Amino acid sequence: MKKRTDEVLNLIASLDAEAQSYLNAYLENAPISILEQFDIVGMEEETTFIYEGESIQKIFILVEGRVKATDQYLDGVSYEYMWFKPVKAFGVMELLLEIDHYKSTLTTAVNSRFLVISKDAFEKWLSHDEKMLRMEVRIMGNYLLTQAKMARAFLFLEGKQRVMVFIVAALELSSQAGMIRLSRQSIADNTGLSIRTVNRAIKELMKEGYITCQGMRILADEKQQQRMRQDTMECWRELGSWSRLL
Asked: HSE of 49 in the Cβ direction (CA atoms, 13 Å)?
């Protein structure tokens, strides 16, 4: 089992400084037996690893990559409502709320890596590690607060601003620098706008030099992205930072 522990520690050492610092604090009081129970799992882009409504069997801790959360509706429409950067544990919020099934569908937005542990082992660890529990409670509180603020703020954004917010977030998650591939229907589904409004917004963004479109491909160089980030910050001033979206 020592090999498994060494693999986990080597993975952490290979991450960027911010992720290393967080994981070192997260695992500070974890017994060696916990490290031995983690699996390191790599997933390709667009891999759905959690489905809403499934019984919770595993906890996934994102250490590299990006993940998007999706709500599924009865008419077949899906809505991407949140994106996550490392480090983020999935399934913990449900455990803290005593819910036995996952509440969201989660899919990798780029190639990603996770530390994966069984629900039973994680719950046992959680019950004996006050520091880790406090970290998770703080994360859950911040997440729910951000979600509530986003929902309120989104109501007051005009069509063009909504589309810009979504494009900026999608560009951050894209595996191809400066390019995303999105249909107008997908943008409409994810912004709550009509296709007509989306088309008008895209034309305005192109005319004002924010983006270039080639069919379903939306292109924005670093200068254009920086301009959109700045203007998006103004739209989301109440949240304090555009990056709170992610």
From this structure: 29
